[in-house]
Amino acid sequence: MQKPFLSRLSPLAGALLLAGCGHADPNAVARSVMPTPLDAWSGAIQVTPQPDEIRLAAHPTGLSGNQARALAEFHSRWMQAEGGLITVAAPNQGGYRVGSDVRAWLMGQGAPAEKVLLIGYDAADPAHAPVVVGFKRYSVATPNCGSWENIVRTFDNGSISNLGCAVTSNMAAQLANPEDLIAPRTMDPADPGRRAVVFDKYRRGEVTSSAKDTQASGAVSQAIQ
Q: Which of 25, 27, 71, 156 has the fewest CB atoms within 10 Å, counting from its CB?
């Protein structure tokens, strides 16, 4: 008489077969998302805000030539840093003329109106109180990755302590705007006009892609140079 199938298996094979019929481990998902040695370096990157400010004297006649040049340099730094809100703080006693001129000048250079905020403040010495123009820019500090041990002496077959440090530091240092390490940027609004055109062509059974540009062809010339 032939023995049952399970009895003809080796003890190890039988155990593996029965284990495959069991329920899924509820902790398997939790283990799959546990931090890796590479994740440890993300917390070592420090992003700190640093105000970029200029101070302009409150002339009763408005902006001077020197102040306009200082504002031009400030606006250039704001553009390069992809800065956010610009605050124009003017003294409540006699400084609003310059403050208004500063806001109008920045908007004339292309700064959106909602990005330039004009506020007032009470100055201890109104006659010499400046108009303070500034925005918040960010700087990044990366860890020192120079401490390396012998990478072949991993007796437990684990990762070395510096694994991922150099890559993470280099990526953080190359970002044009370190603020991107704090939070993602908001999405641009959709293009409803283009979407309507594509859907209209789709409903009529037409090709929805843009027309081919013959000048953008990548064909390689066969002529002998």
A: 156
